[in-house]
Specification:
The protein is an all-alpha fold. The chain has 15 helices and two strands. Helix 3 runs parallel beside helix 5, helix 5 runs antiparallel to helix 6 and helix 7 packs antiparallel against helix 8. The longest helix is centred in the N-terminal third of the chain and has 18 residues. It starts with 7 loop residues before the first helix and ends in a 28-residue tail after the last helix.
Length: 349
């Protein structure tokens, strides 16, 4: 096995050029050295040269050159077959942070990094930790729309918590709490991630009702206990003046207790829940929401979908987001059977 040469020689020739105001020359030297190392399968050396050179160029405000070397770094990752781990991910998160929010450089790097992590990690939609990092970074910068899909695809409890904070803040700019609740709950449930759905919704409801105390219904101002807790805190539903927010809370609890077609009581509860709230019209009666709820009925309760369902963009977007079948394709039928004690099921995180 050939010993990997040190990157010191290359970096000693590259980094001083950056500090002396010659970024173009540094960029060209870095590409030349890295290409030579990669061609001779000395991938680790090429990776170190590209990472350190890209980092220093980005620190010097050279977004174009720095992003180009970061992209080359991902090409070397591909050639090497680099797996997703703390070290390989850490290089990318450092470079993403340094790229800055101006222009399209960061998006270019994020898209390529996510694609690499999807190919070389266990998650077909991309590495959850990378998605979480990107989503939280974008949220802190106020880029809510760009952050949303990353926090949803991350599927982690921490990501669900951040998503709830973001939606609570976002809703103050317009939109109903119930609409934002569905934006978090439905994708998580479609992906079988009840733990994330519950984490998101519990925190979102807590945030939104603490900011708007008048949202809590005067008919039932105290939280309503749901079930008998065996381990951990009691499960509660907060009854609000927003029927969609109430529906979202009940939908998550009903899916949590599903057992496919084995629990007839829960199947009937789901049908009654959807029928009751959809009969009132509004957001839950819209065709795109009806279709998603029908998909959840099939997924959690083994309820066959209505015949001749029309295609709709919202469901197709959610399906594509989580690696589902392409629009119009006949997807294999999925049925989930969540654990009765979902809060202790690590597989749902």
């Amino acid at each position: 096995m050939t010993t990997q040469p040190s990157s010191s020689r290359a970096l000693n020739a590259i980094l001083p050029l950056i500090s002396s105001g010659q970024p173009y020359e540094a960029h060209q030297k870095a590409r030349t050295f890295a290409a030579r190392y990669a061609k001779s399968h000395q991938y680790d050396t090429a990776i170190d040269v590209l990472f350190q050179s890209a980092r220093e160029l980005l620190k010097a405000g050279q977004q174009g050159s720095g992003t180009d070397l970061a992209s080359f770094l991902l090409d070397v990752y591909e050639s090497k077959g680099e797996s997703v781990n703390d070290e390989s991910r850490g290089r990318l998160t450092q470079l993403i942070a340094l790229t800055g929010s101006s222009g399209s450089w960061r998006k270019t790097l994020i898209d390529k990094a996510i694609a690499w992590s999807a190919k070389h990690g266990p998650c077909p939609s991309g590495d959850p930790d990378l998605h979480h990092y990107v989503g939280e970074l974008l949220y802190k910068e106020g880029a809510f729309e760009q952050a949303e899909p990353h926090l949803l695809q991350a599927g982690k409890r921490d990501s669900a918590h951040v998503l709830a904070d973001m939606f609570a803040e976002w809703s103050s700019q317009g939109g109903t709490p119930g609409a934002f609740a569905l934006r978090g709950v439905l994708p998580y449930l479609q992906n079988g991630n009840i733990l994330a759905a519950r984490t998101f919704l519990n925190h979102f409801v807590s945030q939104i009702t603490s900011k708007h105390a008048d949202l809590v219904s005067p008919i039932q101002s105290a939280p309503i206990p749901v079930g008998t807790p065996q381990n951990g805190p009691a499960d509660e539903v907060v009854f609000t003046k927003d029927p969609v927010l109430n529906f979202a809370q009940l939908a998550v609890r009903t899916c949590q207790r599903a057992q496919g077609d084995k629990n007839k009581a829960m199947r009937e509860a789901w049908v009654r829940l959807c029928g009751t709230y959809q009969s009132k019209g509004g957001l839950l009666a819209k065709p795109e929401i009806r279709r998603v709820l029908s998909e959840l009925g099939e997924l959690y309760f083994a309820i066959p979908p209505p015949r001749a369902q029309q295609a709709n963009p919202f469901g197709d977007m959610l399906s594509a987001m989580f690696g589902g079948a392409a629009p119009g394709a006949a997807a294999p039928r999925r049925v989930l059977t969540p654990s009765p004690n979902t809060s202790s099921a690590p597989g749902l995180d």
